[in-house]
């Protein structure tokens, strides 16, 4: 189960609220993976991916505007990481996902887990310290 913990807080309310939503979407993927009663999960996987794409674009825009407003010196490198995340989502192979649904959910969860832990703890928290 994925849940936002205090250690992930940046102390920037709007960013923390949006990170909470990213944890919720990640938890949806986890719940889908552990649902043993659903054999064909493709439509739900695609729905989660669409939610993730839409929400991360919204979140990244919010975060980048905030960084601009405080003249954050690492904005450019931070934006590159955001663009890389979006690019990864946009280039997922839906045929592979359809053929390997549980494996694909596990791969997505690993990607999101790494992102949430590494990006928030190593990069986003620095914004709150500025």
UniProtKB/TrEMBL annotation:
<comment type="similarity">
    <text>Belongs to the hemerythrin family.</text>
</comment>
<feature type="domain" description="Hemerythrin-like">
    <location>
        <begin position="11"/>
        <end position="127"/>
    </location>
</feature>
<dbReference type="InterPro" id="IPR035938">
    <property type="entry name" value="Hemerythrin-like_sf"/>
</dbReference>
<dbReference type="InterPro" id="IPR016131">
    <property type="entry name" value="Haemerythrin_Fe_BS"/>
</dbReference>
<dbReference type="InterPro" id="IPR012827">
    <property type="entry name" value="Hemerythrin_metal-bd"/>
</dbReference>
<dbReference type="InterPro" id="IPR012312">
    <property type="entry name" value="Hemerythrin-like"/>
</dbReference>
<dbReference type="InterPro" id="IPR050669">
    <property type="entry name" value="Hemerythrin"/>
</dbReference>
<dbReference type="Pfam" id="PF01814">
    <property type="entry name" value="Hemerythrin"/>
</dbReference>
<protein>
    <submittedName>
        <fullName>Bacteriohemerythrin</fullName>
    </submittedName>
</protein>
<dbReference type="GO" id="GO:0046872">
    <property type="term" value="F:metal ion binding"/>
</dbReference>
<keyword id="KW-0479">Metal-binding</keyword>
<keyword id="KW-0408">Iron</keyword>
